[in-house]
## 1
Amino acid sequence: MVHDRAVRTRRRFLQGGLALAGLGLLSGCGFPSLQARPATKVPRVGFLSLVPVGPSEDAFRQGLHELGYVEGQTITIEWRYAEGREEQLPALAAALVRLDVDVIVTAGALATQVAKQATQTIPIVFAGVGDAVETGLVASLARPGGNVTGLINLGPQLQGKRLELLREAVPSVSRVAVLWSGSSDSNVVAWRETQAPARALGFQLVSLDVRGPDDFDRAFEHAIRERAEALINFAAPVIMTAANQRRIVDFAARSRLPALYSRREFVDAGGLMAYGTSVTDSYRRAAAYVDKILKGGNPADLPIEQPTKFDLVINLKTAQALGLTIPQSVLQQTTEVIQ
């Protein structure tokens, strides 16, 4: 009986040894053990913006979701907002670099310039930039070069269309105040590109150059002195803060100036009209750039995309308050009418 027990013990030992040897052979043949298999790295994306982008943030998330990413599970997003304080952007960009994110997504030209100064190696994908070549962000639209690529909104080229819509909506207008910022490179381009279509349409432009929050009251007083009959604006960082959007819309209402804005946020706040690139669509498509880069794409070789979708939004309640009747020809071009 003792002999039988010893035989069984020896058989189990030999079987165990053969099993271990088999695992060793399998490992040697290129089949890693479970313990040696590396964990899948969850990509980390930084998002840098001067101000919270609201619906655009949701659109970016939607774009990622459409590509199979789930925030917090298969991708991590580090959201960084400067809350309208330009001086905070460099520190926020540096923090993203220290986190060693895989890609930085930037909102607007200023955030993109700051991110580009912070890193020449981490890929940067921008949205909401007017002229990326003119402002020096990329070498060309076809081959950006460097570590920056993304989507432009063709802001400067849209100025002629905005003026045409203003002429069609309010034919009696001849003097138009233009709210812009000389501290924004893209605004400087937009101001230059506005001159020719304004002359062609018979508009006289009144320049309202604001470079900081304290400049708005002076600019508004200048518009009144120059007898401005309407208002348009460009999308500069100082103009796009929520507080200053509110000031601009209130000034237009108080002064009974028909206004055509660059972004629909102004119309949501009570402004009359907005025409421009669909910003939410741009951020949704920015997710595709992130996906390509995470899969090995080189930003230097990813062409800059130009917009394909434009929005015209009109607030009829504001039109009524101004005593305006928007022509049917303009209403037929709208993406959305706010009653």
## 2
Amino acid sequence: MNAVLLAGGRAEDPLARAFGAPSKGFVPLAGRPMAAWVAEALRAGGVERLVLVAPEAAPSLGEDERILDRGSLLENVAAGLRAAGAGPVLVAAADAPLIPAEAVRFVARAEPGAAFVYPIVPRAAVEARWPGMRRTYARLKEGSFTGGNLMRLDPELFFEAEPLIARLIALRKRPLALARLVGLDVLFKLLIGRLSVAELEARAKRIIQVPVKAVVAAYPEIGVDADNPEDLLFFERELEAKVAHG
């Protein structure tokens, strides 16, 4: 399987600026750029062709092809998918350096035939690994989950749905319009923790008109990413321990 590693962004990002890095994904962690840890996991997980989306000034991560940052997440994903080639493609965030090769293989194989496979990580799995860790969770009928920083997309179906996805993104700052599109019934059930994973998938499919699957992934490492200096200290400790234990 091929993969796109999203390491775009601006040097003005607070974390990037603090380290003089071309984007947040290239902040140094345990002696390497943060994105390098993700690239290593993707290769170890079986990725054959790696497309890197990054600023022009970013160093090489051994990628097979580089796409220059397009300025928005949706445009970066689209450009990366075009370069990645036919067949399902993994898309990984560069600011999640703990992603393990086992999680890469899991997402690559999960729910064959779905256009969009998105792993959700149980809160219990995160807190069992790192007690007291604060993340953002959605309370569903089956439990509380945080989103993963690794997903799988079918490029052909993604491009069919791209105009609808762009519409969702455009409405993100217009809550009433977004609520009408998503549905007040779904939002209310989500608010009170009664929305099921199956209902969430069904509504997502109705909105973007392609099959969507949310898969429960007991890999807490894909549910944590770097948002602030405290996160960097946490990742530094985890990666140094990983190197020390081989």
## 3
Amino acid sequence: MGYSKPMLAAVIGVGTELTSGQIINKNSAWISKNLKDKGIPTSCHLVVPDDRGLILEALHFAARHCDTLFVTGGLGPTTDDFTRDLIAEWAQKPLEFHEASWEHVNQRLRSRGLQVREAQRQQCYFPQGATVLHNPEGTANAFQMEVGGKAVFVLPGPPSEIAAIWKTSLGLYIQEKAKGLDKLLTYSWDTMGVGESDVAHITETCLQGADVEKGYRVHLPYVEVKVTFQESQKEKLSGVLQSLDEALKHITVARNGEDPAELLARKLETVKKLEVVDSFSGPVLLERLLPFLKTYLAESAWSFSNLPGPTWGDPQSLKMVLKPWDSSSAIAEIHFKGASFKTIFEAPFMISKMTDRKRLYFVERALLFWLQKTNDLL
């Protein structure tokens, strides 16, 4: 199989609300993750305020370190929205009015009973030669163009609008461009129960001399191992990767970014009543589950208690329990329609006296236990 040269992306987030800390720049992470899923790496993330000089500097810098550039924010109707002007200046192209975008603005605002103001027209100017990308979730259309041999995509700031544009047009472009690339592949192992230095020692020993990029990330109670390489080297590296897999097998709890909480939530989608009882971890378990159990808030009945006593006691509800056993152990239980499973976890010596780490460890062990047992119950 022949491969073409890899793509390399960069992302610029524009907005004083980002640099001031008012909001977190989630767009860059979202874009890079979606690119990574297609085997396209990102060289850098830049965040700049609504400052014309700094935005131009960011464009010049990012363009030197990528062949595909994404710019988010600054396409709205207010006076601090001038990203399009600076892209036009950078590309040395005049701005041209796009009548279809004006019709889009009018239709979207009037359908919601909102007044169309003259200031909205600034959202309808695009650099000469740009391709306008329809925004189904907002008034500001996006656009793409080539500048100095670089593919440039200029997107609005709201994450929901970026996701909508990605789904309707931009994602298709990325998918097409990714065909035939010598993509970057990343294999990962989430390990538990062994310290970072020991995990690194196992990994470095197995991968000695292998042409791969190695990385480690501690996200308690896990130590993640990441190995990245070009797709063209996959067959050549198969033996050494298999050896690493075997060496880490006894401490591996998840592979390739799988999240036990997310996988458990998927398992529970068919359960109409859910009870969670946690008298051990404080807020830790609730914080882990909530992002993935949002559907329960709207569609199913569920309860959370930090008391060991019964809640509904309904045999038709699935009940997950986490409670202390002694100073270094905890019990996890799962009950559904008369069937019950229980196990006791003991904290590894290295974290047995660290309260916060112990809570994190037992929550993850409980999630993994419940995930395993839902296969028998559901």
## 4
Amino acid sequence: MDPEPIQHIEIIDGKAYIAGRKLKPKLLGRFFALGSMTIEEIMEEWTLSRAEVHAAVAYYYDHQEELERTRQEQIEQATRNGAISIDEFKAKVQARLANKESP
């Protein structure tokens, strides 16, 4: 008999998380999809199993269009509210990603 599947993604208050963690799979999936981090780098950075990372990446790809649309709407809303310009936001994200790539 095959073992029962492990659910690595859980939904809490309408938001997806790695099960038992306050870590959003959309973030990890996006790092991987953009080529910013490898599976192994994500595993090491957040102390996750390979299965947890693959589940996060699968979740991201299963919902990519919706997640990216929501992300863009949030950026535009923040820009309209004067919180930050899109260029400033992009610069912050790029700096954050560059820091992840540094040894």
